[in-house]
Design a protein that fits this description.
2 copies of one chain form a homodimer.
Chain A (H helix, E strand, L loop, with lengths): L8 H9 L9 H12 L4 E6 L2 E6 L6 E7 L12 E3 L2 E3 L3 H17 L6 E7 L10 H8 L1 H4 L3 E4 L8 E2 L3 E10 L3 E2 L9 H4 L1 H9 L6 E2 L2 E2 L3 E10 L4 E2 L2 E10 L5 H11 L4 E8 L9 H10 L4 E2 L6 H6 L4 E3 L14 E3 H15 L5
Parallel strand pairs in A: 3-6, 3-7, 7-18, 8-17
Antiparallel strand pairs in A: 1-2, 2-6, 4-5, 5-19, 8-18, 9-15, 9-16, 10-14, 11-12, 13-15
Chain lengths: 355, 355
């Protein structure tokens, strides 16, 4: 199949949606993108599995990354795509083939630009972090990702969402002493003792700090609980799994320390974590981008791959068509006008006239 | 194999222990018991699967049941039996082949007695109630179990334990509303809400009522808890499984009503229940039995098959050799002297001279 990059962005999005690309099965779509990119002589292309990096070499002093993942969550009886009332429906329409379509439209049109541009298309964003194509690229070829600023075209409803919160998971363990439930007073009930953990969670006051001008909103929540030995046994262990979403003014280490302090007296085991990203909106490229996009930037509360750019020392924001609340829903859709509008604004910002 | 009922009760116990009879595999032991019973002309025998009922027909105005289960929990590297320092070790030594040995010794010696006697040997007591051999007998042949008084030779350390507490299991369900954990304030956390259930459990004051002269001790405990959808989702349901052990002055219905009242405001689903048994120690046969056994009777706090006799309208007590705390342990054992002592006291009570 051949992608037609001369189509309006909405129609191009539909073409992309109709190439099913659930995480791990992106090859056909990656092939099509690589084929289309290879027709653009001003782009040098690198491929790593189903991830593709295409770079301009305009000799500009500043370089920006435009990045998007090409995989989707599993299809939910929502393929092929369809259009109704100016809305494009289908798996990946919102998250984030509309953003990928904008990348491809920009690549096709910007034979010259105010800034050098690195287009990144990557696989396996919707699954466990170790399979993430952007992580793989950052390990195998970090030099290809080098830039002054990065824009991740994840759905933000057309707003600029700066940075992202970090996430940390920990198991908080309450202990007790086993006994037969007919003589419960001979033991100590670990599930009852876990009430102390839930007390902490219920009383927890989440911070809402302003970081580099953007208001974040933390949260500390139980996401799992388990305990029990048998129907006639007083249990000796109960585990509460908590998820701490923390603002980017805390490091992962500080977040872990905070969780340990909050649950002082309980056994705290950190399971996994991923740092957040500061908004970085005071960087010159970011200032110019925000001004060009219009609207008031807001904080990204969910963790996204902007944190990977942050870890590489590259300020990054999220900005793309589509309502983020619709991501991963069966009813996923995106307004066609919002895709065109995103393309137009970014084109204006990147074209030579915008320099 | 042939059981030798002329052996001292301790040695006979060892013979029984050495015939492995984990629940469901009692046939060889049941065959041996049936064979031994068939040699005793004053007993009429009935067999139902691996349960055996052997009845005297002495024409006495009063009839007592002596009952014991012949199955054991799974072997825990504790067969064959061994003797050390006057203690008999081995799977089932305490729970309750020493009691079964006493039954068989009495059967062999009591060619006449002060009361008619119904010996019941049954299978599958250590597994789910539906497989219980005494339940099967009570459904198939209730007339064979008819009596004025029943003694279950479960381990009680040689004391008389009257009645038993009932048990009820219920699931108490806390609900909430799902949300992404990055925006937890958009949902309602069911695990946090389950803190209210644990509050109730932690504050619960268990009754210790005296029923027919015996002090019971209730208990309401979580025996399981579960909740959670995924590591990044605010869960919408959390279930706490509770076990209510209740004194026999409450019926099953009253116990269920109590649990519903205690957890008012939560969804309460009764999972299963089994009523307790009143001690019945004021019955003439019980008064005589307690006096003959000596010692101060106490309440049975664990649920036992005395409740099945209670349901048939037959007062019942637990009385047998062995420490109940050792039941189901790898280290299970019973003092040989306690077996002999139990046999001697019961023989004295049942023999014609004791009438």
């Amino acid at each position: 199949m051949k992608l037609d990059l001369s189509l309006p962005a909405g129609e191009l999005t539909a073409s992309l949606v109709d190439v099913e690309s659930v995480s791990g099965t992106e090859q056909r779509l990656a092939d099509a993108i690589a084929d289309a990119i290879s027709d653009l002589p001003y782009l040098s292309m690198h491929r790593d599995g189903n991830a593709i990096v295409a770079r301009t070499n305009f000799g500009r002093p500043e370089r920006v990354v435009l990045a998007g993942h090409i995989d989707t969550v599993p299809v939910a009886d929502n393929l092929p795509s369809s259009v109704d009332g100016g809305l494009l429906y289908g798996c990946g329409s919102c998250d984030m083939k509309s953003g990928v379509a904008v990348q491809l439209r920009l690549a096709a049109q910007l034979a010259g630009a105010a800034r050098d541009i690195t287009y990144v298309f990557y696989d396996c964003e919707e699954v466990e972090a170790e399979r993430n194509g952007l992580l793989r690229l950052s390990r195998n070829s970090p030099e290809l990702l080098a830039a002054d600023f990065a824009i991740l075209l994840e759905p933000t409803g057309g707003l600029v969402e700066g940075g992202c919160q970090g996430t940390l998971r920990a198991d908080i363990i309450a202990t007790g002493e086993r006994a037969h439930s007919a003589r419960s007073w001979l033991g100590s009930n670990a599930i009852h003792n876990a009430g102390g953990i839930l007390d902490v969670l219920r009383a927890y006051q989440a911070r809402q700090p302003v970081v580099e001008g953007l208001p974040f909103h933390e949260g500390l929540n139980a996401v799992g609980i388990g305990g029990g030995v048998a129907g006639n046994v007083i249990p000796d262990e109960c585990t509460v799994s908590v998820n701490f979403r923390f603002a980017p003014d805390r490091s992962v280490e500080q977040a872990a320390q905070h969780v340990r302090e909050v649950f002082a007296g309980f056994d705290v085991r950190i399971a996994d974590s991923a740092g957040g990203a500061r908004p970085g909106l005071s960087q010159p490229a970011a200032v110019s981008f925000v001004a060009a996009m219009g609207g008031e930037p807001r904080a990204k509360l969910g963790w996204t791959d902007v944190a990977r750019f942050d870890a590489l020392g590259i300020p990054a924001v999220n900005h793309g068509p589509g309502d983020p609340q619709l991501a991963h829903t069966r009813n996923e859709h995106v307004p066609l006008a919002q895709i065109a509008d995103c393309e137009a604004r970014m084109l204006a910002w990147l074209s030579p006239a915008g320099a």
